[in-house]
Amino acid sequence: MSLFLAPTTGETLRAFHQQLMQWFDEHGRHDLPWKPQDHYTPAQNIYHIWLSEIMLQQTQVATVIPYFFNFIEQFPTINALADAEIERVLKAWEGLGYYARARNLHQGAQYVRDQFNGEIPCDFAAIESIKGIGRTTAAAIMSQGFNRPFAILDGNVKRVMARVTGAMHPEKQLEKVLLPFAYMMSSQARPNDYTQAVMDFGATVCTKQPKCTTCFWQARCITLQQQQVAMIPAKKIKAVKKDLELFPIIVENQRGELLFHQRTTETIWHNLYEFPHLSSHLLDIEEMMPNVTVIESISLPRFKHVLTHINFHIEPLWIKVTTDDPSITLNGQCYAFTPRAIYETYAKTKPTNDLLDAIHG
DNA sequence: AACTCGGGGCG
DNA sequence: CGCCCAGAGTT
């Protein structure tokens, strides 16, 4: 049995496309900074679209814009990015989240430098072979960068297409069901503008709580007519979150240097910097750090840090000590005292930055 | 197919 | 406080 509210005809999709493009010309976002510009080379414009697509994964436009400007200033070309140190790339990404994106982007730039002479080719399969680029981002580069008819199905497009077609399918089936419709839409006129148009429409009109009274399609929207707007697209099944406690220890010596180290775990916050932390409360300071004299021990307020799948409950301890040692062994691991000017140049986790604000503010 | 990866904004 | 945002890699 069909999960569509009603069958969708080709005429319906063509009419929607026509009106969408008219809407875009008048109301679309035409000033996004990664839009191709004449004072950049064609290769740079493609690079900008690539970069923006990566930054925009699960991240809103307003958040991305300042990061984008900073990034292209530091890394103006793909080859410049490829030749840069990963530490600099992560620093430019600091606070944006999903740090695997930065590592994949850096690896991708080296791949493009070595395999494609520093220029992204107009080849969907080749683009998709670049680290960090999946079907959606590859299609976005093909359509927006090269003006080729490739369909994207990101969150915005899925929401728009689900409502236009009245697809009630659950999240997993939805993408497969909508892909043929998405391709049909993209294969009409102005592929690059269409891609931007449908995303702008999804981001500004056909939102989660859509502005149907201003919508050009309200008279023909099957989802609106049958009052299913709140039900389409179907909600995602919420993942169960874990609660984890974290006990960071901020050890500050008489010169104001802090114990600081780079994460090496393969899981979260890979390659980023943080304070040493324990999995339980620090019981005996003198026992854990024999060669230091504790001047002051301050419990900072506990706070929460939320990730997609983890709630961190953080109970920080700030210990001011005197010692002649340049490093401290804690739980069998060696941590070095680091001057403020140094650690501020490295990309840190969000809780670490919050703690730095707390002790310096 | 399910799970993992951040952080910000908004109602 | 819950949900979503221009998703992709791993298992």
Automatic annotation (TrEMBL):
Pfam families: HhH-GPD (PF00730), NUDIX_4 (PF14815). Belongs to the Nth/MutY family. Its EC number is 3.2.2.31. CDD domains: ENDO3c. Its cofactor is [4Fe-4S] cluster. It comes from the Bacteria. GO terms for biological process: base-excision repair; mismatch repair. The keyword Ion transport does not apply. This is Adenine DNA glycosylase. Keywords: 4Fe-4S, DNA damage, DNA repair, Glycosidase, Hydrolase, Iron, Iron-sulfur, Metal-binding. Adenine glycosylase active on G-A mispairs. MutY also corrects error-prone DNA synthesis past GO lesions which are due to the oxidatively damaged form of guanine: 7,8-dihydro-8-oxoguanine (8-oxo-dGTP). It comes from Wohlfahrtiimonas chitiniclastica SH04.
